[in-house]
Amino acid sequence: MNTLPVALHLHLIKRRGMVFLCTALLCLLAAWTCSRLVLSEDARSLMPDSPPELARSFALLQKAPFMQRVTISVGGQDPAALADTLAEALKGPEFKQILTGPPGDGKNPLDALTEQLPTLLDREDLESLDLSPAAIPAALEQTKKLLLSPAGPACRLSAALDPLNLRLLALKKFADPELRRYRLDGGHILSPDGGRALILAEPHAPMSDSASAAKVMARVEEAARTLPAGTELLVAGGHRHSAANATAIKGDLERVLPVSFVLLAVIFIWGIRSIHCLTALAVPSLALLFACSGMALLYGGVSGIVIGFGAVLLGISADYALYVFFASQGPGGVLSGLNAVCKPLLMSAFTALAAFAALMTSGIPTIAGTAIFSIIGLLCALALALVVLPLLFRPVAASASAPSPVPVPLRPVRTTKSLLPLWPCVLGAILLLGAGVTIDGDIRNLGYSTPQIRKDEENLRRIWGDNANRAMLAAQGEDFAAALEKNDAIWRILHDPALGTPPEYALSLAPMMPSEKTREERRQSWVAFWQARSQSTLTLLEDAARELGFAKEAFAPFAASLLTPPGNTRPPAFTGMLTAMLCAADAAGACMYTMLPEHFVPSPSMQESLEAAGAVRLSTSGFREELSAAISGDVKRFGLCSLLVLTVTAILLVRSPARAALALLPPAAALCAVLAVFRLSGMPMNLFHIAALPLVMGLAVNYGIFVVFALGGAQEPLTRKAVLLCALTSCAGFGSLFLARHPALFSIGLTVLVGLGTACAVALWGIPRLVAKGEE
Description:
Elements: H1 3-12, H2 16-34, E1 38-40, H3 52-63, H4 65-68, E2 70-75, H5 79-90, E3 95-99, H6 109-115, H7 117-120, H8 123-127, H9 135-148, H10 156-161, H11 167-171, E4 183-185, E5 188-190, E6 196-203, H12 210-224, E7 232-236, H13 238-272, H14 276-299, E8 301-303, H15 304-308, H16 310-328, H17 333-359, H18 365-388, E9 413-415, H19 419-435, H20 451-464, E10 471-477, H21 480-494, H22 516-531, H23 534-548, H24 556-563, H25 575-582, E11 583-586, E12 589-596, H26 604-612, E13 615-618, H27 620-654, H28 657-663, H29 665-681, H30 687-710, H31 716-735, H32 743-766, E14 771-773
Parallel strand pairs: 1-8
Antiparallel strand pairs: 2-6, 2-7, 3-6, 4-5, 9-14, 10-12, 10-13, 11-12
Helix pairs in contact: 1-17, 2-14, 5-12, 9-23, 12-13, 13-14, 13-16, 13-31, 14-16, 14-18, 16-17, 16-18, 16-31, 17-18, 17-27, 17-30, 19-29, 27-28, 27-30, 28-30, 29-30, 29-32, 30-31, 30-32, 31-32
C-alpha cells in the first residue's frame, strides 16, 4: 500500500501536463454542474423518516390548513375596508384563494343557520326540546325581546323560521371559546372589539418551497405598501418562516465561506511560509467544488444547511494537503514522504469516512445528505492530495525509482501504567455526562426566526387565538365525502358519555357540515319527530303569539317547515370559513381536523374507538416528545456506530492494542468535552449538535493516528506541526460557523470546535506523556 502512491507518482511525473489539463477540465465541468445546483429549505428534510408514525404525524401537521395559509391581521380606522384593499392588492399568481370573510350570497349567517336546522339537529337534540304549554310562551317571549332589540331588523327572517329558538341547540355544539375571538360583520371576520380584520391567504406553492415562499412574502410586502400609514399589519405563516430561513442561510453562505477561506489562507501562509501554500490551499477549495458538483448530479437540489457545511469541509479536507506537504519536506523528499505518509493518511481517511458513513444511518434527510456531501469532498481531497499535489513539488529525476516496498518501521513504544486505569475513567465519564444531557426535539428551534416574526405571531395569538398549538384529531379520506364520514364518527365518539368524559370544547366541521349520510338521518328524524308533535306545537304557538301581539301569519315559515319535508339544502355560507380552517384536500385525498384543548387526554376506551375510526391524534407538544425520542435513538445509533467503527478500524490498521488505545484517546476526550459543555451549561442538544458528534470523533482519531505513528521517528516534529495546523484549519472552518445566524449551522460550529480543540490538545500534549519511549 505504501508504494502505490509512489509508483503512481513516478508514472505521472512524466505526464504532468496531461494530469494538470485533465484536472482543469474536471474543475470547469464541476463548476458548470454547480451552477445548476438548487438550494432549498424544506422543513421535511429535517424530519426523520422513521418511525413511520412520526413521519405521518409531521405530514398531517404540515397539511393542516392553518399551517399552509398566510394569516394576516389588519387594524386601523376601518378594518373591513383595509382588508378589502389588501386582499385586492394580494391578487396574483402567488395566491389561489384569499378569504376576508365567509363566502356566499351575503345572507345573514343566523338566517342560514336556521334554514339548516333539520340537518343540524339529531334525535337527541330534538328529544331534549321542551314543548310544554309553559315552555312555548316563554320561548316566544325571548323571540319578541330579540325583535325589539337593535339587532331585531336583521333577525326578522330567522325569528319567523325559528320562533322557539331551536338554533340555540345547534349553537351549543360550538362551545369552543376560540370562536368568541371571531365576529362576522358585513362579510368580514372582525375581532370582538371590531378594531381588526382577518385575512386568510392560500398560496399555490407549499411552504416547504423556499423559492416560492420568498415570492409569496414579496407579494405580501408589496401589497402592504398600498395601505395607509399607521395601519397595524400582522403576518404569520410557514411561508414567512421558509423565506426567512432561506434568506438567513444564503446570507450565512455568503459570509461564512469567504471567512473560512481567508482563515485557511492565513493559517497556510503562517505554517508553510512558501509559495507552496497556494498549491496546498487549492486542495480544500477543489474538494468543496467537487462535493457541490456531486450533490448537483445526485440530487439536483439540496438543503442550504448541507452546503453551509462546506465551511467545515474546507477545514477537514485541508488536513490531507498539509500532511502530504510536510511529509514531502522531510529529508527523503517527495518519494520518501509519500512512502511515510501513505499508511497513516489512508487510515485517517478511512476512519473519517467511516464516521460520516455512520451519519448515513440517520433517517433525517438533511443529516444523510450532509454525510454524502462530506464523503464526496473527502474522497476528492484525498485523491488530489496523494496524486495531483505531489506533482507540484520539486520534480524527481526520470531515473528515480520507487523506494523499497518495506515500509519505514515504527519505533516500538511502551505505554505508561497510567493508561490502564485511564480508559475506564474516560468511558465512565462519557456515560455519566451523556445521561445528564437533555434533548431538544422542537423542530422550530432548528429554524431561523427574526424578532419581528416572533412578535407578530405572539400578537396574532393574543388577538385571534392559538390554533397551531392545540391538540388535533385528523380524519383522512379518499375524497371530501369520505373524510366527512370519518369526521362525523370522530365527533360522535368524542361526545359519547359511555366512552369517557368528552372535551370541554372542540372545534369541528361535524356540527355544521355533517356527511350526507348523517344529514339524511337527521332529516328523517326531523320528519318523524314533528309528525307526532307539529299540530299541538303549532296550536300552542298560535295561542302564545296572539297573547304577545304577533301577527296571525308571523310564523307561517316555521309552520311550513314542520309540515313540509325538508329538502337537501346546502350548508350555511359561513361554514366555508370553517372549511378553510379545518379541511385540507389534494391529489392524495381530503383530511378533516378537529381542534381540541391541548391538555385533553381521551380515556382508554375513547382512544381505542378513535383509533378504530381512523383518527390520528396530533399535538405540537406530543410531536416534540416523539421527535426527541427519535433523535435520542439517533444519538445512540450514531454513538455506537462511531465508537465501534473507530475502535475496530484502529485495532485492525494499527495492529497494536496499546497504539490503538492511544489513537482513540483524542476522540474519547473530544466526546467527553462536548458532553461536559452541555451538561454543565444546562443547554439542550438539538439535532445538529448530535449529528456533529460522529464528525468530531472521526476527525479527532486522525490526530491520534498520526501522532502515534510518528512517535520517536524522524518525521515526528513535522508530523506534530502538521497535526497542529490541521487542527487550526478545522477549527477555522468550524469557527467561521459562529458567524452564522441560522441555528443549525451555529450548532455544528459550536459542537465541533469544542471537540476538536480538546482532541488536538490530547493528541499533541497528552499522548506523548503517556508513552515511555524505548525498546519493548
